[in-house]
Please model this.
Amino acid sequence: MIRERYARQIAGLREELLRQGSMVEHALQRAMTSLETWDVTLAAQIIREDADIDAAQRVLEEKVIDLMATQQPIVASDLRLMSVVVAIASELERIGDYANSIARRIKRVTRRPAFVSPPSGIREMATLARQMLHTSLEAFLHQDTSLAYSLAQDDERVDELEEILRAELINIAQSDPRRIEAALDLMEVIQVLERVADRATNIGERVIYLVTCLSEELNP
Model:
């Protein structure tokens, strides 16, 4: 009975992590919707609910600590899973912070005296970053290393888009100094999206380690 309870607790770690991942995906999606529509009410909601993502991470860490303290012996594969769950939960918490950051910048941009419409490429960059997050979580769910490795190519495209969009916003700022601050706000959004992609590749690396015991660098 004790080992059956232990098995349920191990399975529960996976479920809790995927629940946190779903919360983060939803926050990121709403952050980009808020950017496209300049919905400051939605942005404020994202900011408030960031605490729920933080709480989900703390719960996971506490459950892992409890398992490690009360269940002995722990086989190597389960110990590896616990360490990976804690690491991925941390990555997800950071992505949740990025969604929060985008929401805060939306509130700031709408108060600027001169407005800058988001370049069209931001939508592609945001979509790709969200897809990378979803792929990384699917890779964890199915312990699929091929999905994890696929993140490297997507990350390269995100980096390309970051350079293109940054140059576009610099041109906007140079052509109209009144819009410099608004352009800088959007540059920060672009940087945040690039970091989302980096965090997704970090999750992919953890999945590869979980499955193969090998440390791979997908984002050199």
Helices lie at 2-37, 40-70, 76-109, 121-142, 145-175, 180-212. The radius of gyration is 19 Å. Residues 24 and 96 are 5 Å apart (CA to CA).
